[in-house]
Specification:
The structure holds two protein chains of two kinds. Chain A is an alpha/beta fold. Chain A has helices at about 10-15, 20-30, 75-80, 100, 120-125, 130-135, 140-150, 160-170, 190-200, 200-215, 230-245, 275-280, 310-320, 325-330, 360-370, 400-405, 425-440, 445-465, 470-485, 490-495, 495-505, and strands at about 5, 35-40, 55-60, 60-65, 90, 175-180, 220-225, 260-265, 305-310, 330, 335, 340-345, 350-355, 380-385, 390, 415-420. Chain A is globular, with a radius of gyration of 24 Å. The N and C termini of chain A lie far apart (about 65 Å). In chain B, strand 2 (about 110) and strand 3 form a beta hairpin. The longest helix of chain B is centred in the N-terminal third of the chain and has 12 residues, at about 25-35. The chains are: A alpha/beta, B alpha+beta. The structure holds flavin mononucleotide, iron/sulfur cluster and FE2/S2 (inorganic) cluster.
């Protein structure tokens, strides 16, 4: 019998849903049938409600089955899934699934398809085309290409990547750094994790190109201790890249040298903020630094430093390979290219959906996400993590675009959408946001450090029904102070979830309901 | 379950020195100490301060700043429940209440018999298959009351 190749994701989400047990069950069932199988541990395709999504390579192509539990494996063998036979869990070709077919995948094009530990597989699927072109172009033209693409940082603030790189390229320093912000602390976000686990060479390639562009020879990937699987996958890929001459001295035979190291945080949300992250990397408490000086001038160990999010850096290989204009052709307004959007929380078809900017929130939650898994009506979605606003359903026509969100006092952040059904209590969520801020504050500014604690007390009184009108007024005032008087977005944006919950769902705070204006 | 070594100054020194060639080595050192001994004992603070040529207060400041570093050993098993928004949206509050009730202790505490420490964690990146938990480093998603009971039973065994 010839060996049959089977893919079972090694993505943390798949593992948390039983993928390792499924692998063991497949191995046992194959052994008892004397059927040789080769199991490849790929990343996730991003259809997370189907994880573990097992794929079998057949004459027709890869056929998917999911969600597979270890108890399903015997039945799958009996039904003949090794030849792609019919079964209740069969979804057909994953790339033809409507959830996948509707996407424009650039960053995630290989995720779930390749073996993340194989450099050969990476190359076979277009990997390192961007670096090859970058080596031909040289530093200045690389930055020009990134500029043409219109790429804005995907970490939350949306700052143009090319400008940041240019500043570092022009800065003087005997040593420069590329730091990848892979802290991904926002609830509802997992795109960075998925790339590190499913296509780590893409991040390595992106950081290498950044290094060449600005003249940096060393890079750090700073990620969270909550992501052990991503850390293993990254470290493994770095080792492989180094062994193949794609990291270290004279990359790919060129005059450029660049090396990478992974560093792990220790459970502090504020270390996602770029300057706090740098302090943490240096071995200090993660406190936010006042700017200027910008990290581009004085960053890690006081040296010029590019600090970019995983998704910004992983967009770069595509921009270089296919040209900045190709990338800029996707999107709307000043939001160019694609955005990997993460749909989570109380959602039926949760997962990663990469698409050009401009799609509406309603399409994402209802058409693509299929509404709540509890089957109850959607009440609101929090977009952009713990500091993001709660968007009520009557604003679901909002297009995914940095400026459109800002105009509604909301933010896209890292592209995470957390869906809540009608049972959610928005006053409680507002209290949670304040409490989160008080626990995670780095302590540097009074409005953030003390204000958030006062905010929690006020929320408790409001929830208890004490002098509601007066306390709501004080809370609004406090939010204003936090917005204006905070050094970073932790204190400065916590008012977004609080005020949006208050403004859109006043009755949950014991205030009189307001007329809902659909066309506001 | 993780197996920790008893405190030994010599061992601590060896663990720390393994990272002394790194740039900004304090965080990797602290992680390694905690991995070895299960917590960061006070006695390593002066050792680190000496080695890195910083004040003890500075090292102490770092150890206390980060949520991950423990000052006391945890229970034999550590159960972490995700309490962030996506898990709350998917019914995480009820599960946390259930765990506290079953274990007879609050999040952040260790059961009286020292077997289980239960802690909140803020997002494991499994938010599309929420609610999520982690038992001694093993991650579990799509948590239900039944699955949580199984995890608790495993932790108590
Ligand atoms: C409290 C706080 C947490 C943040 N967390 C992250 C994070 O987890 N990942 C990230 O890329 N950016 C995060 N940011 C934004 C970074 O400070 C910074 O804008 C980003 O890393 C820049 O990269 P980009 O230009 O590629 O977006 C955070 C900001 C704040 C204020
Ligand atoms: S707003 Fe909060 S977290 Fe940000 S610098 Fe000020 S105190 Fe630190
Ligand atoms: S919010 Fe719980 S895993 Fe992300």
């Amino acid at each position: 019998m010839s060996t049959i190749r089977i893919y079972v994701p090694k993505d943390a989400c798949a593992i948390a849903c039983g993928a390792d047990e499924v692998v063991a069950a497949i191995e046992a069932a194959a052994l008892s049938r004397r059927q040789p199988v080769e199991i490849v541990r790929n990343g996730s395709r991003g259809m997370l409600w189907l994880e573990p999504l097992v794929e079998v390579v057949t004459a027709e192509g890869r056929i998917g089955y999911g969600p597979v539990s270890e108890e399903d494996v015997e039945g799958l063998f009996e039904a003949g899934f090794l030849t792609g036979a019919a079964h209740a869990l069969r979804i057909g070709k994953p790339e033809e699934h409507p959830f996948m077919a509707k996407q424009t995948r650039l960053t995630f094009a290989r995720c779930g398809i390749v073996d993340p530990a194989s450099l050969a597989d990476y190359r076979a699927h277009g990997g390192y085309r961007g670096l090859e072109r970058a080596l031909q172009l040289g530093p200045e033209a690389i930055i020009e290409e990134v500029k043409k693409s219109g790429l804005r940082g995907r970490g939350g603030a949306g700052f143009p990547t090319a400008i940041k790189w240019k500043t570092v390229a022009d800065a003087k320093g005997d040593r420069k750094y590329i730091v990848c912000n892979a802290d991904e602390g926002d609830s509802g976000t997992f795109a960075d994790r998925m790339i590190m686990e499913g296509d780590p060479f893409e991040l390595i390639e992106g950081m290498t190109i950044a290094g060449i562009a600005v003249g940096a020879t060393k890079g750090y990937v700073y990620t969270r201790s909550e992501y052990p699987h991503a850390i293993w996958a990254m470290e493994k890929a770095i080792e492989v890249a180094r062994a193949h001459g794609m990291l270290g001295m004279n990359i790919s035979g060129s005059p450029y040298s660049f090396d990478l190291e992974v560093r792990m945080g220790a459970g502090a949300y504020v270390c996602g903020e770029e300057t706090a992250l740098l302090d943490s990397l240096e071995g200090k408490r993660g406190t936010v630094r006042a700017k200027p000086p910008l990290p581009a001038h004085k960053g890690l160990f006081q040296k010029p430093t590019v600090i970019n999010n995983v998704l910004s850096l992983t967009a770069v290989p595509h921009i270089l390979a296919d040209g900045g204009e190709f990338y800029a052709n996707f999107g709307m307004g000043r939001s160019r290219g694609t955005m990997p959007i993460q749909i989570a929380g109380n959602i039926r078809f949760g997962g990663l959906f990469e698409t050009a900017f401009g799609i509406t929130l309603g399409e994402l939650v209802n058409d693509i996400g299929g509404g709540t898994f509890t089957g109850k009506p959607v009440k609101a979605a929090q977009v952009g993590g713990p500091l993001g606003a709660y968007v009520p359903t009557w604003q679901f026509d909002l297009p995914f675009d940095y400026e459109a969100f800002a105009a509604k006092d909301a933010l896209i952040g890292h592209g995470g959408i957390v869906v809540f059904d009608e049972d959610a209590n928005l006053a409680k969520m507002a209290r949670f946001a304040m409490e989160f801020c008080s626990v995670e504050s780095c302590g540097k500014c009074t409005p953030c450090r003390i204000g958030s604690t006062r905010g929690v007390e006020l929320m408790d009184r409001i929830i208890a029904g004490e002098r509601v009108e007066a306390n709501l007024a004080t809370l609004t005032d406090l939010c204003q102070t936090m917005k204006l008087g905070s050094l970073c977005a932790l204190g400065g944006f916590t008012p977004y979830p609080v005020l949006s919950a208050m403004n859109h769902f006043p009755e949950e705070f014991g205030a009189p309901p307001r007329r809902l204006e659909a066309a506001e | 379950m993780p197996h920790y070594e008893p405190w030994s100054e010599e061992r601590a020194r060896a663990v720390i020195e393994e990272f002394s060639h790194l740039e900004g080595p304090l965080m990797p050192m602290l992680h390694a100490v905690q991995e070895t001994f299960g917590h960061v004992p006070d006695a390593v603070v002066p050792m680190l301060a000496d080695l890195l040529n910083v004040s003890r207060a500075e090292v102490h400041g770092v150890v206390t700043f980060y949520h991950d570093f423990r000052h006391e050993p945890a229970g034999r098993h550590v159960l972490k429940l995700c309490r962030a928004e996506a898990c709350q949206a998917a019914g995480g509050d009820a599960l946390a209440d259930h765990a506290e009730h079953k274990l007879g202790c609050k999040l952040g505490e260790t059961t009286a018999d020292g077997r289980v420490t239960v802690e909140p964690i803020y997002c494991l990146g499994l938010c599309a298959t929420a609610p999520s938990a982690m038992l001694d480093g093993r991650i579990v998603a799509r948590l239900t009351e039944r699955r949580l009971d199984a995890l608790i039973a495993e932790a108590q065994s």
